[in-house]
Amino acid sequence: MKKVGNHKSFSKIFFSLAFMLTFSLSVFSQDAAVGGDPAKGKALFNSQCAACHKLDGKATGPALRGVADKYEKEWLYKWIKNSADLIKSGDALAVKVFEENGKVPMTAFPQLSNADIDDILAYTSEVPAEKPVVVADGASTSSDSGTGISNNVILGALALVLGMLVVMLFLVNNVLTKIAKANGIEVEPKEKAVPIWVAFARNHFLVLVSAIAFLLVAAYFAYGWMMQIGVDQGYAPVQPIHYSHKIHAGDNGIDCKYCHSAARVSKHSNIPSLNVCMNCHKNINEVAETTATPEYSKAFYDGEIQKLYDAVGWDPATQSYTGKTQPVKWVRIHNLPDHVYFSHAQHVTVAGVDCQKCHGPVEEMEIMQQHAPLTMGWCINCHRETNVKVEDNEYYKKIHEELSKKYGVKQLTAAQMGGLECGKCHY
Amino acid sequence: MASNKKYWKSVEELNENSSIVETLRNNEFVEQIPVDEFLGDKDSLASGSTSRRDFLKYVGFSTAAASLAACEGPVVKSIPYVVQPEEIIPGVADYYATTIADGFDFANILIKSREGRPIKVENNNLEGSRTGANARVHASVLSLYDSLRLKKSKISGKEAEWSEVNAKVKASLEDAKATGGQVVVLTNTMASPSTDALITNLQAQYPTVKHVVYDAVSESNALDAFESVYGVRGLAGYDFSKADVIVSIGADILGDWQGGGYDAGYAKGRIPKNGKMSKHIQIEANMSLAGANADKRIPLTVAQQKQALVKIYNVVTGAAVGTSTIEKYDAEVMKAAQQLKAAAGKGVLVTGLDDVDAQLLVLAINTALSSEAFNPSATKLTRKGNAKAVAQLVTDMNAGSVHTLIMSGVNPVYTLANSKQFVDGLKKVKLSVAFSMKEDETASLTTIAAAAPHYLESWGDVMMERGHYSVMQPTIRPLFDTKQLQEAILSWTETATSYYDYLKAFAASNINGKSWNQVVHDGFSVSEVSSLSAGAIDASTSASKLAQAKSAGLDLVLYTKTGMGDGQQANNPWLQEFPDPITRASWDNYLTVSKKDAEKLGLENWNVANGGLNGSYATLKVGNTTLSKVPVIIQPGQAVGTVGLAFGYGKTAGLKKEMQVGVNAYTLYTNLNSNQSVTVTKEEGEHEFACVQLQKTLMGRGDIIKETTLEIFNTKDAADWNIVPVVSLDHKETPAKEVDLWTAFDRSIGHHFNLSIDLNACTGCGACVIACHAENNVPVVGKSEVRRSRDMHWLRIDRYYSSQDTFDQDVVVKNNAKGLSDSISTLTAMEDPAENPQVAFQPVMCQHCNHAPCETVCPVAATSHGKEGQNHMAYNRCVGTRYCANNCPYKVRRFNWFLYNKNSEFDYHMNDDLGRMVINPDVNVRSRGVMEKCSMCIQMTQATKLKAKREGRLVKDGEFQTACSAACTSGAMVFGDVNDKESQVAKLAEDDRMYHLLEHIGTKPNVFYHVKVRNVK
């Protein structure tokens, strides 16, 4: 998911007018109150404050937009540098703020100078800039469809020309016959030929051959169709939570094995437990405006994050776990039959195969789907083509040296190493 | 509920004499059904367009349409943890050290846990751990998932919360304190110092509390004897690896004698090294595992055994207590005595005679020998039961002087011979509580049935031996609403700590300064102990008392079977189906009778047409107790004048119907003495056994189990006693090893797995069979299927008897048979085992032949060979022709005749969700119509390789294991990579004793055996 809180770059047009107005009203006072560099402030905010605060919306700490208007600057300096001291000293406002925010003590930041704090406050006082209204991607779409139409036009024109040619030939033929008749030339009526299908039916040999050919072709297709049974390539079921690999692995570049950590050591590449999601989603409770697509709105994605919170029992309002959990029943996409033993650890850790090799461009998949057919032929083919990764692996050193000499090759394939034996996968 | 309401369908019904109602009552339809309209018109029927053919077409179409419509894949749901525990990675096994202590079996073990489920028991191989896991311990993980467990406590049959239970007990304790009534805590041997301390706390608060320890299978006499000499209630420790001569009188040292666990030490001395191995003489009545493994076995009645003991005493100490001669075997007993004396410190004598004098005498003799193997200071504390105290308790209960009875881990209603008196007494007890995992015979009669956890759900500590402190840790959260006795006591004494905290604090004084975490990790902690000083033993009085022993009729020797033990795991299908190592019968207990006595009593065994073994029934009478319908098995080696019967069967409460097999031998266990005088009479009817081995003898085929004597082994060339079979090649005798029908595959590169089985070290204990069961999801098929020889065990332990006195003589007899008629009569005679035969065990699993006959006949190439030596089996490819099984010379392939999981016809653990939790997720569960067999635990070798690859290193020797080799505590099975020349298995493969099973057929197996060497002289 894209970083949230960066409200400087809104990309979408639908922004309610009322919402904008509310903000623009407060702008006037803010500018007067703060003197600092919002750009520096942004950097500081992201490095120091963002772990607990957001500009708009409650995280561990309260939302900070417009905080400079609410409190005295001097008071804020003291509070930020050491809130605990301020509370201890009995400052009524400090105690109030402390209690309002669930008595969560705020980390002291003695290292921040007043100027730094000014910068941060300048940043928090910034009005979310209005985004230049982007005209919908109409241009690109129309050009796309334009090429489509032009092709059709050309084809249509060609068809028209050919059709006209046929008509013309027919007409010419008619005209010539008429002329001949008019000139008294007897046009010999064509001997009525035996229709081709009758001829065909009379030729037993041809019938036999074509019947055999037909049966063979039918068998070929029937076989092909039958072999598709149980092969769920492209299977993309609807999941209880719309989890987008595109956003996580693609846009944000999270490593596959950050979440699917068991793939390194286990036969299973685990479906991550929900506490792994919460490593990030404790702080990320909404997506950026930029994440939304015409197909999936921001509200939709935020709703999906809320589903995660419901499942894991996280109350974003109080920033605490309720203890009420509801395990998520994901629909399993890659279903190997029971009689196949597949080990992720062998392929991921030992062989160093990219996840994408079998799972496809996951980082582009909005909805996860089965990329490979996962048939035995597909497995075996790869074993035949892939060399064993022997570099820096003491285990393979001796066996690879001896075996490659025996086979007279430089690099052994997985098949030559024994990767085609039945018992290696079926037990 | 009674009601006067009258329901009516119409107003007319209210009119009493309505003709309409009357008509309707007789005629369901008011109008005539117009059947004629559509059946009466023959013409239209004849001209009807729907013919029979059309009908079939429609049926065909709709079937096809329905099946096509059903071609949609199922939706599989996957539910991850909400918060994943740090130590759990899906797909990776965790191991936890813990200790089993169920009152009968005690062992330091590791628990393999997948996704939080314990799925297998492994041995704890840390230096200093005690007692390898036996078959029952391996199977105990399945008892955790027993669907008939008591899921919630009950008060008078109604489910109750723990708060109610504790309040009720507490009130009763207070009442007992006020009225001075006796409170008895009756437990099995827990050997738990912290529990003892808790009971002492309870006693401090309630002075009338008494603790009685009751072992269902009692060692009370041995304990009394040891206590009188050494002052500690325990049993002497023995280390058979230090003995050169072992003489055992009625002690099954490889079975459950003194709680078992001696096979590792015993086997160490049995492997010939530098021309030496121990000599084992077994004097006994029943054929036991120890007897089967002995170099010399002398079958004697109980009285004769006592005489023999006195004779040995005379020889060793030079005393002259008068004894009567032992018929037939007198010289052999004297010879054994001489050998024992000659061995002096290197000799050891043990006994299992249930007699204080006999036990005292053994202590005296071992002391006189100054036997190195005998170590009373390493006292075993895993048996503490007191027969007298139990008898007193029953008396007290009947006298009405027991106010409250709290039981834990015991089932006296089932296990006491005077169970009826106990039940009567129970009625006079004001409050009785039974902490039990099952609603068993006792728990269903007590006021409160308190749901107790399995040991894998409990904390605890166990002092198995003086100075050896083990910790039991839970490996799964309690599956049900259960609480341990210890927690309950803490609540009764109003101690505000959990048992875990109490234990942790308590353990500090026992763990020798180690950290608690370290001890929990290791599973135990060992500290030095002072040696015990021996008191005086009045051996001569004991000896003269013993010398008076005389047989009165038949001796009944009650024993425990390797599979069932004391019977507390009777609802465990793995154990029920486990074939007894000696009789090879499963799903039963039976009276073992010698052939002579059987003839005398008219008892018989015979095989019926389908091969199943049938036997007569007998009625047993001990004192006034009769036990009827006892099936009879004629047991070679059973001492004439004795019969044997195993405990643990005939249970009815808390058991699935299929498991309610056998007869209850405890009813004959009068005064908790395993030696009883009995009268046996034949009864009508015939019993159907589920016996997996019908061929009893080896028929002189010395090439199957090769064996030799220590003398020949030491003096002659290997070629003389380990004869390599020869075949004819180009009309020349060529060693079978060198003849190849196929081009051999080069296996010198990479791993090449071999399994070595030393027939000298294998005791036949069967731990490997159950370990294989657990690791490979082998299904349980039930008694009637086993009887049809459809057992699914991937690993069997063949047991052979000699038909002459020794196997060597068998070979001679067979070779001497000349001509057709002589051969037929000789061979027929050889099918009968000798009266006191030699016995040999041979574990047989798939031999993983490099030239496998099964592979060449499979029409679909479902079974194929791997480069690393394993014979693979692709279940999904198998179409079930069974050609492979027919072509297998070792008969190790098993066919799934039925679907054994999720099938109510086979209502064992794989038929319920709870029982299926034990299934190993790394091994496929096979379906119907598929052949299966030992895979050499390829899932384990693959996992080991993967681990090495991930860590970028070579595999170390000993890392490669199979379930059976890992379970083998005696060291008989060694698995590894023979291409690693430094590995143990590679060295064993080069050993002189190495041979392959049926070598002459040229299958070139990857399993090899070591010639059995017997120390007979």
TrEMBL record, chain A:
Q: Which residues form the signal peptide?
A: 1-32
Matches recorded under SUPFAM superfamilies: Cytochrome c (SSF46626), Multiheme cytochromes (SSF48695)
Report if keyword Iron is assigned.
yes
Q: Where is the Cytochrome c domain?
A: 36-128
Q: What does the record give under GO molecular function? A: electron transfer activity; heme binding; metal ion binding
Question: Sorted alphabetically, which Pfam families does this protein's record hold?
Answer: Cytochrom_C, Cytochrom_CIII
Q: Which CDD domains match?
A: Cytochrom_C3
> Does Transmembrane helix count among this protein's keywords?
yes
Which spans are transmembrane here?
A: 153-172, 205-226
Q: Which UniProt keywords apply?
A: Electron transport, Heme, Iron, Membrane, Metal-binding, Signal, Transmembrane, Transmembrane helix, Transport
| Highest taxon, organism lineage | Bacteria
The cross-references to Gene3D superfamilies, in alphabetical order and at most eight, read: Cytochrome c-like domain, Cytochrome C3
PANTHER family, sorted: CYTOCHROME C7-LIKE DOMAIN-CONTAINING PROTEIN, LIPOPROTEIN CYTOCHROME C
The name this protein carries in UniProt is Cytochrome C
Organism of provenance: Flavobacterium tibetense
TrEMBL record, chain B:
Q: What Pfam families does this protein's entry cite?
A: Fer4_11
Q: Which residues form a coiled coil?
A: none
The cross-references to NCBIfam families, in alphabetical order and at most eight, read:
MoCo_extend_TAT
Q: Which InterPro entries match?
A: 4Fe4S_Fe-S-bd, TAT_var_transloc_signal_dom
By what name is this protein known? Quinol:cytochrome C oxidoreductase
Span of domain 4Fe-4S ferredoxin-type = 753-783, 837-868, 869-898
